[in-house]
Amino acid sequence: MEAWAASSMTPSDLEQSLPPTTSDVFLGDRLTIRQPLKGYRAGVDAVLLAASVHPNGPQGATLLDIGAGVGTVGLCAAARLTQLSAVLLEREPVLAHLAQSNAQANGLTARVRAVTASVTSSAPELSSLGLEPDSFDCCVANPPFHDEEAGTAAGDALKAASHAMPSTGLEDWARFMARMVRPAGRATLIHKAEALTRILAVMAPRFGSLVVFPIFPRAGESAIRVIVEGIKGSRAPLEFRQGLVLHEDGHGFTPRATAILRHGAALEI
Question: Rounded to two decimals, what is the model's pTM?
Answer without folding.
Answer: 0.89
